[in-house]
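Field notebook, page 344. I keep forgetting to write these up properly, so this time I am using the form the group agreed on. The chain and the ligand, KG4, are recorded exactly as supplied. Prediction of the bound pose follows.
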Amino acid sequence: MVSSERYILAIESSCDESAVAVASLSPEGCFALCAHQISSQIDTHKLYGGVVPEIASREHLKNLPLVLDQVMTTSGIERTQIDLIAVTRGPGLKGCLLIGIGIAQGIGAALGKPVYGINHMEGHVLAPMMEHPELEFPFLELVVSGGHTELLVVKGVGDYQVLARTIDDAAGEAFDKSAHLLGFEYPGGAALARLADQSSNSTFTLPRVMRENREFSFSGLKTAISQLIRQQGVRADQDAAVRAQLSVAIQDAILDALLFKLKLALRETGLTRVALTGGVAANRALRERVASLKGVELFCPSPVFCTDNAAMIAFAAAARLKSGLLSGTALEVLSRWPVEEVCQ
Ligand code: KG4
Ligand code: ZN
């Protein structure tokens, strides 16, 4: 056990959010977030209807130093007090990860402090524990974001059993692509969900998404929506009532797929603690439906820590440090890095 507070500087740049956090870990193992900031690039990528990797890298190069300065100032911590640097090493967009790693290495070299590569998914996986220290291992978790959909048993730090993941689109991607078909501006998922929440039951029905398979699959949903729109001759982009009704049906179909496999996993594992994380975990209906499952105790991060952020990277580094698992400073980018392959 260390005798004084340790300060962690964390950097996240795996996709289209430039994020920095400073956190402390007390000798007793208590984690505290000193300051954090997220600079989103959505307004830039909106123009292209999706994330453009090359532009995202250049935005990180521009934004990260500014965010870093602001976070350091807000934290009240001097750079020389930083004990270690944690940076997202993967999975993610190669060019984007390289910018974050390069900046982390520069700071590490200047301060003479170690830089550790953290798995972005492990950040998401452990994020619910940051605000809920009472959440104990093992628990079931749904990681649902724009890039990932995974159902896993979280057995301990670095000990993750993936029960199912998506074979094509992620849940957030399904929300966004469906939203695009209804004429919403990119990314559209949250706007579609908001409209669905305000609307009554839908007269439209969509096929239930791949219930019987072990893995998740959402790509058929786009086809089903396009067919429905064509067959019924409806114009979702022009008719507000149709758009609202379709939003309800789409949200229902996506949540049904998530709930179906979650319920199966609850039965099979006998676990009762459930965590939701990733951008789609901000979805109000999803939280409500999971919370209403009999005997389930639900844990979710605040919405700001559901989406990509650097606080979760600092927290994952702290959890590894406490467990004696923060070792190795290999930093080559891993654009593909399944969470179950994170070493123990
Ligand atoms: O975790 P995240 O910020 O980025 C990735 O790592 O992918 O998740 C972003 C995704 C987007 O697809 C967005 O549309 C979706 O999360 N999202 C939502 C909601 N809020 C964000 N989807 C459904 N309902 C929401 N309330
Ligand atoms: Zn993410």
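OBSERVATIONS:
- The first strand starts at residue 6 and ends at 12.
- The longest helix spans residues 240-269.
FOLLOW-UP: compare against the apo run.
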